[in-house]
Specification:
- The complex is a heterodimer.
- Chain A is built from 13 helices and 15 strands.
- Helices cover 33% and strands 17% of the residues of chain A.
- Chain A has helices spanning 28-36, 70-89, 112-122, 130-136, 142-146, 151-160, 175-188, 206-214, 253-258, 287-299, 318-332, 345-348, 355-369, and strands at residues 13-22, 25-26, 43-44, 57-58, 101-104, 167-170, 194-201, 244-252, 265-272, 309-311, 341-342, 371-372, 395-396, 401-408, 412-419.
- In chain B, strands 1, 2, 4, 5, 6, 8, 9, 10, 11, 12 and 13 form an 11-stranded mixed β-sheet that branches.
- Chain B has 2 domains: 7-109 and 147-394, Peroxisomal Thiolase, Chain A, domain 1 (3-Layer(aba) Sandwich); 111-142.
- In chain B, helix 3 (70-86) packs across helix 7 and helix 5 (111-120) runs antiparallel to helix 6 (127-138).
- Chain B is of the alpha/beta class.
- The chains are: A alpha/beta, B alpha/beta.
- Chains A and B meet through helix 3, helix 4, helix 5, helix 6 and strand 6 of A and helix 5, helix 6, helix 7, strand 5 and helix 8 of B.
- Strand 6 of chain A pairs antiparallel with strand 5 of chain B.
């Protein structure tokens, strides 16, 4: 019988349910079909006018009914992904999930339509200041709850009946991975047999796009949206903002086995290391990224040679992809030439707070299907960062263990190691 | 995991508020028992503004200060105080292993840009295009880095070199409770040896006054202590920075660090706040730690916000536990959302260090005097909208 504890005596953490939504579609089936067909979900933004913007494309999710705010959209995506994951898992009962919620969510804030609405209510004709808004703010009671940072998690906790205080977290573009890590840790501590971990992001609105644009982080390849995300290619010139959500039901192997659940994969290890170099840039020596990847593999009780596939952070920014190359090259050495590494972001864009969770879902599906989704748009390889990025076409491969990287502003680095089966 | 349970010590605290900076300034002001607040600057709103701070003392590089807005400066400053207090400032080997959990809200707005947009967009021929144009032209590119919730933690990594790990919890009062709870759980279970945990809040922001006023949660015009706010209730926001260094006892002993207090329990839960929910939630939390609570020398530092009906229900719950001396720190420092709970754990640590409780400041008679030694402090957190928390802080030794 396979051991219920890992080499360090901790409960083995398995995955029994997955859910995902991206610009490619809703649900695992649709996403997997398009992802392995090398399709792009990136398109011109139609949700709002893009006059005057440098970047006019994104991986928006436009096939659902419109919502009045990014907060509501973010909640809607998480809801759908969680529903799919919990249904697949068959855990608990309707509205009664037997574990806590860890939610990676973009910072919730009041948005322009609402701010302008309050401004109009103030009746000031000339100069409108915050003093004017504050005269009438108590006439908008619904905006309190909607724009509290905790409201998305609270509504999900209420609907799915998760236990205890739901945790909303941000580690910027590593948030989704951090949510999973918190779930893994809680199960390892023996606090719970299950956890619902979600990363979600529906924050494509004018100010959000402009903020990233002003930091020169986004591609401006507006004319060919589907070719705009070019991870690891020489002509990569920034990331594409995107929306999505990924949800995972984590369980202790013991509890999952006891209830006869189907095991979809194993969360074997989590690594993290913060970078103190700069607010948006990685330390040039790559030490925090290297340490993060190495920590993840070590936490899984594995060695670098055990890793068969790297699910890259691969944002398509000049800086990230170069630093990620440096990181994986240092950890995997010469062998990296032969380790496939692909970036889901070439097709779905950068789903920001959701990315770590969305890409963990895809990594587990990659292991489960023994098939690697490609990196599309790799037309001009960058000779400075030679990698097997699984260009253009999906590839079948035998894989037992994979690692998914997430790096974010603020020196956030998280790597998750996933396996096919409990060892 | 019970066999592996480790004792956790609080070996450092860093606090700033309207009362000043550091444990002694806070203790003196609390002993003077004159709660109060600024009723003019944001009138009719009331805030507890941050006492004057020389940020240079903890954030030496002006370039770093420029990259931050005040909520981040307050947090980076308080984090530095906590690291100093624990004797680990600049100790690279420890800082590179130190875990960090920050409880933070969202970042500050550029009030002038917002005002320009509010004044021009409604009258523009093409409002959407004008919004884009103004945002593209007027926003400082680096403002985004002063807005992202996780960039308080990011700045603490940069300024103080804390790099073991960095996580940011968002979500008002409960995020502060859960930050301390997770940091403690990880230490107790052996997942972490030493952690920096806390948060900061800048109350002197019209955008936040507005957000809370959407729900009619802000008291206006006249200040009153927390328990004296009547049926309508409400809170006065307060600028706070509060960080703790939590450490496994064996780790602290090995480096010769002394405990300021022991943190023996942090619990949290969520109720939907239907009638009776809050009391049931607090009762569940209480039942989990009541066996640790001794008969005497126990006080409660309440994080009551003043909001209605949460504060009245917390009061009812506390009244049902006869004989506990209660103090609402919000009467003094105001309500600081995310860092409120870490602040109260820190103030409990300060009181335990003095071995006594500060005097009441409540004409309703609910806060009663306490004489004799103080051995344990229960810290409560009842969020103004959601989230319940309870901690037990105990005298060291």
């Amino acid at each position: 019988m396979t051991a219920m504890k890992d080499k360090l005596g901790r409960p083995v953490v398995v995955v029994t349910g997955l859910g995902v939504i991206t610009s490619l579609g809703a649900g695992k089936t649709d996403n997997w079909a398009k992802l392995t067909a090398g399709e792009s979900g990136i398109r011109a933004i139609t949700r709002f006018p893009t006059d005057g913007l440098k970047t006019k494309i994104a991986g928006t999710i436009d096939f659902l009914p419109p919502q009045s705010s990014a907060a509501a959209l973010t909640e809607c995506f998480a809801d759908l992904a969680a529903e799919e994951a919990i249904t697949e898992s068959g855990i608990g009962s309707r509205g009664q999930f037997p574990g806590p919620l860890f939610l990676a969510v973009p910072p919730i804030e009041l948005e322009w339509p609402q701010r302008l609405e309050v401004g109009a209510k103030s009746g000031s004709n000339d100069k409108v200041t915050y003093a004017d808004l504050m005269r009438v703010s108590d006439q908008f009671p619904a905006y309190h709850e909607r724009f509290l940072l905790s409201s998305v998690a609270d509504h999900l906790a209420e609907k799915f009946g998760t236990q205890g205080s739901p945790i909303s977290l941000s580690t910027a573009c590593a948030s989704g991975a951090s949510a999973i890590q918190l779930g893994v840790e809680a199960i390892r501590r023996g606090e719970t047999d299950a956890a619902l971990c979600i990363g979600t992001d529906g924050s494509i609105n004018p100010e959000a796009v402009i903020r990233f644009s002003l930091l020169s982080a986004l591609t401006t390849s507006n004319d060919a949206p589907q070719k705009a995300a070019r991870p690891f290619a020489k002509n990569r010139d920034g990331f594409v903002m995107a929306e999505g959500a990924g949800a995972l039901v984590l369980e202790s192997y013991e509890a999952a086995t006891a209830r006869g659940a189907r095991i979809l994969g194993v969360l074997e290890g989590c690594g993290e290391m913060a970078d103190a170099f700069h607010r948006t840039r990685s330390s040039p020596d790559g030490k925090p990224i290297i340490g993060c990847i190495a920590n993840g593999i070590k936490d899984a009780g594995l060695a670098p040679e055990d890793i068969d596939y790297v699910n890259a952070h691969g944002t398509s920014t000049p800086e990230n992809d170069k630093m990620e190359y440096l990181g994986v090259s240092a950890v995997f050495g010469e062998r990296m030439k032969n380790v496939p590494i692909s970036s889901n972001k070439s097709m779905i864009g950068h789903t920001l707070s959701a990315a770590g969770a969305v890409e963990a879902v895809f990594t587990l599906m990659t292991l489960g299907n023994q098939r690697i989704p490609p990196t599309i748009n790799y037309d001009i390889p960058d000779p400075g960062i030679p990698l097997d990025v699984v260009p253009h076409k999906a590839r079948d491969a035998r894989m037992a263990h994979a690692i998914s990287n997430s790096f974010g502003f603020g020196g956030q680095n998280v790597s998750l190691v996933m396996g096919l089966e409990p060892v | 995991m019970a066999s592996a349970q480790r004792e956790a010590w609080i070996t450092g605290i860093g606090i700033v508020s309207t009362l000043g900076e550091g444990p002694e300034a806070h203790w003196q002001k609390l002993m003077e028992a004159h709660p109060g607040a600024d009723v003019t600057t944001f009138a009719p709103f009331i805030v507890h503004p941050l006492a004057p701070i020389n940020f240079d003392a903890q954030i030496p590089k002006k370039g770093d200060q420029r990259q931050m807005e005040n909520w981040q400066r307050i947090g980076s400053y308080a984090a530095g105080l906590a690291l100093d207090s624990a004797g680990v400032k600049g100790k690279t080997e420890i800082l590179s292993r130190m875990d960090m959990i920050v409880a933070a809200g969202g970042g500050e707005r550029d009030l002038s840009v917002d005002s320009t947009i509010l004044s021009t967009v409604p009258h523009a021929a093409n409002p959407a295009a004008t919004l884009n144009e103004r945002l593209m032209g007027d926003l400082r590119p680096t403002l985004f880095l002063a807005q992202l919730s996780n960039l308080m933690a990011g700045n603490i990594s940069i300024v103080h070199g804390v790099t073991g790990s960095s996580r940011t919890f968002m979500g008002e009062e409960a995020s502060g409770v859960d930050a301390v709870r997770i940091a403690l759980s990880r230490i107790v279970a052996g997942q972490s040896d030493i952690a920096l945990v806390g948060g900061a809040y800048n109350a002197e922001r019209p955008d936040l006054l507005m957000l809370n006023d959407f729900g009619s949660f802000c008291i206006k015009d006249n200040y009153a202590p927390v328990w004296e706010r009547g049926d309508k209730g409400g809170f006065a926001l307060g600028s706070l920075g509060a960080f703790l260094v939590l450490e496994a006892r064996d780790h602290a002993e090995k480096r010769g660090a002394k405990p300021l207090a022991r943190l023996t329990a942090v619990l949290s839960d969520r109720s939907n706040r239907r009638p009776g929910d809050l009391n049931a939630s607090l009762t569940r939390l209480w039942d989990k730690l009541k066996d640790k609570v001794k008969g005497t020398g126990v006080a409660v530092l309440s994080g009551a916000t003043g909001a209605s009906p949460a504060t009245a229900e917390e009061r009812k719950f506390l009244e049902s536990h006869d004989g506990l001396a209660v103090r609402a720190t919000g009467s003094y420092v105001g309500h600081g959302m995310e860092p409120t709970f870490p602040m109260n754990v820190a103030l409990a640590t300060v009181a335990l260090g003095h071995g006594s409780l500060f005097p009441p400041a409540d004409s309703t008679g609910f806060e009663r005097p306490m004489s004799g030694p103080l051995n344990q402090v229960l810290v409560t957190s009842v969020g103004h909208w959601r989230g319940e928390g309870l901690a037990l802080v105990e005298r060291a030794g």
